Amino acid sequence: MALANHDRQSNRSRRFLSVVLFIALLGMLFPFIWMIVGSVSPRWNAGWFNPLVEKPVWGNYRDLFASMPFGKYLMTSAVVAAIVTLGNVVLCFPVGYALARYRFRGRGLLYAAAALVLMVPQYVLIVPMFILVHRLGWYDTLWALTLPVMVSPLGILLIKGAVAAVPIEIEEAARMDGAGPWRIVYRIVLPICRPALAVLAVQVFWLTWNAFLFPFILTDTHVRTLPVALAMFRGYQSVDLPHLFAAATLATLPVVIVFVIFQRQIVAGITAGAVKG
Amino acid sequence: MKSRHPHVSDRKWLLYLLIGSAIGGLIGGCSRSQSDKTPDGRTIIRLWQFWTEAKARAVIGKAAGDFETANPEYKVEITDLTWNDGHQKIVAAFAGGEAPDLLELGSDWIAEFADAQALMDLTSEYMQLRDTYAGWPASIYQDKCWALPWYLSTRVLYQNDELVSAIGDQPGHAPLTWDVLMGRAKKANQLQPKIFGYGVNAAEKHRLYKKFLPYLWSRGGSILTPDGSHCALNSPEGAAALQFVVDLSQYGLMEKQAQLDELFMENRLLYHISGDWLHERIKVSGSPVRYSAHLMPYPSVGEGGQISFAGGEYLTVPRRARQPLGAIKLARQLLNEKNIFNLCIATGCATPSHKTVAANPYFAEDSVRRVFVQQLEQSQAPPVHPRWVEIETELEWGVEQALYKKLTVSEALEQTCARIDKILAQPSKK
Amino acid sequence: MNTRGNVTRWLMAAPWVVTLTLFWAYPLGHALALSFTRYDIFGGSWEWVGLANFRAVLQSGAFWTALWHTVLFTAGTVPVTTALALVLALALNQRIWGRALFRAGFFAPTLTATVVTSLVFIHLYSQQGYLYQLAGWLGFSVPPQSFLLSESTALLSVMLMDVWVSIGYYALLFLAGLQTIPRELVEDASLHGATGWQQFRAITWPYLRPTLLYALVINLIKSLQIFTEIFVMTQGGPVGSTTTSVYHVYTAAFERFDLGYASAAAYLLFVIIAIVSLIQFKLLAFGRGAEE
């Protein structure tokens, strides 16, 4: 009987929580909703309108593709984000592992360099980066947007922390069974660190998708990404809000959809096979 | 597994890294700058411009296409700069030695670039074009011309005639003097809490000063002394102008430009200094707002002038341009009647730089645009000084201090002048 | 085994070494060198001025004011974001209906481009905007102008927006951390009658701590470098009340074209960020290996 009461209570509290969350969600999403509504608004300031009275302007979306190669920008953003995310997940891991487990010469230096890149305001780096990219002949190419950020200091720090948290006994056990270092890294430690990798993937994807500064400076028309394209909607003295919102909606929705699809893997952080405690 | 000499090894790896980057630098040091020719042998002309919105951009693209057709030995490569972030790319380009061939610059930047020897002397072009175009003062520095006027803009006083009727005055009647303006604004402000008499621009860089200078200049004041060596704001004229704006603000609202435009269209703002884009916006959106545009008011009957702010976008040729002759040819193309007209139509500009285009019925037969053209003739450009942008920042600072009542008008002007004098006293940075 | 071990280690660290050498050493070095020079971007000439730029930065009132605003911003947003995100994560960790929807929904603001979010909020904060009207309706004393144009509320408004954007993201981070808690432990504890608070302290907290530390550090680093929102929404105004450190660097570099000063300020800022991060790390990372 006591257990049944307990269950009823948690059900009630859970339902209450649902309601509270829903209200909070509405509040959180309000600007976002406005952006979507504004994208088809017949008002020049993308304001609210009654869809039964004034017809939504779906043409705004058509305009996007008519006036610029929006599909190409979308594609470019997706490709760049995918490459950089994958690159980071694959390449940051060994680096983070090495920094966490091994003591070798120059370790402190590499660690400090990661901090340096992370903490120096990007704005002073764009001029030399621009020069470097030009000298390498990579201006307005995919190389410029992907290679410098394939191994991000953020990723290194995250992985290092994750690896450091893995009990050393696991590795010792594997080593005693005769496994080589690479095997240990990729077959044993990596699965345990999957949550951290998931976090890294999300973070890098999001940062790359939304990155403006370096893509703006280092590219022109050939490899333009969405944030740069969005910036073009701000006019001389006024902003073309409906079209900007349409572009922004298109820029955000695919990512949201991807996230919804993968959220179980991402958030659940598959930990099957890991040794607990 | 522990390193035996930690300090030494860190230094050793630092050395390795430096060597590595030096090698990397050397590889790049064989500076492989962008090629100047397309695969089919045409010479590339690089145009850097700011018109990125769809309609305007289409005009630029078409103009470039026409140029290529008329000059098949050239190919035009257009780099789009955004109004907000474009300067980052310009700085990066100049610092990196990758200057474009034809560069669009705002009127407030010309003197700085010219003073730094970054631009090519275009006086010969000026000699040929001086009678065809307007807007030259902003491009003349140290008796030479450095830029060609492409897109001019000025500010006029918009009046909401709905509200004018509401306060019992004649709609369409211009506010001829400051007193009339103040009186009407006061009455309108009292109509309803949500209705405002005057829109004061605040907290927006490169915008606020354009709403103050008309009053200063109409009153006969000036920013710098004629020889440009000292600040002249701290004068009776300057104080009168600033006091007037501060007084006006109590019968109005301080907001950003975009929000003021909106309020005006919603019949909630009686007077608003704005540009031609507002007129275009109202027409395009089909808003039923009744309004008229007027010249800046006289300070008082028969005294002072009706002077407004004039600025715009100009075409310059960087000194390090690789195709200066081609760039000038392209500039001529962009500046021809057809392209100026098309750009104006696409952007809603009311004051084309080409004099013949300005006489076109499209401008002359529209009551609002007519006022713009008229106002442009009585407008002034800010002093052409290499450190104008810094001076502008201080000017805006001072006006803001007075508007936010942090300083009295005289204190604000005094401190602003002190700051501007400090800027003027420093030798040129180059 | 030593040599082979060393090779393996360097091979593992190689991606970062290569990236550093090829892409970051030059920009970092160049910027550092610039901070000791007076550089003319148009003529390309530069002259060595030693510590003059650093002195100019430290002596400039604007730098310290900007730093103060940055500190205010960070102190205001980091704790609030973290706390709210934690609460949200705990809530989302429960088995409630529509969990997936909630997770996606709360994360959506983070996914929107900063520029767009800033523009939306400019409108929301203005006189005609809903937030302004909501505040008035709720009884707050609202300034006559938009929130962004009033000295007392401008920075707060930007901070609020930053919190709004970030909550979903950090909630996700914490959620991932919470998901690593073995379910048996939780069920075991409730069976033994442990209260929610006791469960939190004994079970949740140890698993959450590393994630929390990570979130705090990156939030701190990010907040100390806040720029885009300021750039779009207030341009450092009104009356300079929202000028932050990076904005100060930006105006020096791209409005005054003084790359030397800007680089010096940037490196000084780096030192400050590094010190603060280090302090935070030392304070919060009590004991390694305490995560079981």
Verbal overview:
The complex is a heterotrimer of chains A (277), B (430) and C (292). Chain A has 13 helices and no strands. By secondary structure, chain A is mainly alpha-helical. Chain A is flat and about 75 Å long. Chain B is 47% helix and 15% strand. In chain B, strands 1, 2, 3, 6, 12 and 13 form a 6-stranded mixed β-sheet that branches. In chain B, strands 9-8-10-7-11 form a 5-stranded mixed β-sheet, with helices on both faces. A two-stranded antiparallel ribbon of chain B has the order 4-5. In chain B, helix 2 (54-70) packs antiparallel against helix 13 and helix 17 runs antiparallel to helix 18 (409-425). Chain C has 292 residues and is an all-alpha fold. Chain C has helices at 2-34, 52-59, 61-92, 99-111, 114-125, 130-138, 151-178, 183-191, 196-224, 228-233, 245-254, 259-284; strands at 37-39, 46-48. A two-stranded antiparallel ribbon of chain C has the order 1-2. In chain C, a hairpin with a 6-residue loop joins strand 1 (37-39) and strand 2 (46-48).
Describe the secondary structure blueprint for this structure.
The complex is a heterotrimer of chains A (277), B (430) and C (292).
Chain A: H1 2-38, H2 59-67, H3 70-101, H4 107-119, H5 126-136, H6 142-146, H7 153-165, H8 168-176, H9 181-192, H10 194-210, H11 213-218, H12 226-231, H13 241-268
Chain B: H1 6-29, E1 43-49, H2 54-70, E2 74-80, H3 86-95, E3 102-106, H4 110-115, H5 123-129, E4 140-141, E5 144-145, E6 148-154, E7 156-160, H6 161-166, H7 178-189, E8 196-201, H8 208-218, H9 236-249, E9 252-255, H10 257-265, E10 269-274, H11 276-285, E11 291-294, E12 308-316, H12 324-334, H13 337-347, H14 355-358, H15 361-364, H16 367-377, E13 379-380, H17 388-403, H18 409-425
Parallel strand pairs in B: 1-2, 1-3, 8-9, 8-10, 12-13
Antiparallel strand pairs in B: 3-12, 4-5, 6-12, 7-10, 7-11
Chain C: H1 2-34, E1 37-39, E2 46-48, H2 52-59, H3 61-92, H4 99-111, H5 114-125, H6 130-138, H7 151-178, H8 183-191, H9 196-224, H10 228-233, H11 245-254, H12 259-284
Antiparallel strand pairs in C: 1-2
Helix pairs in contact in C: 1-12, 2-12, 3-7, 3-9, 3-11, 4-7, 7-9, 9-12, 11-12
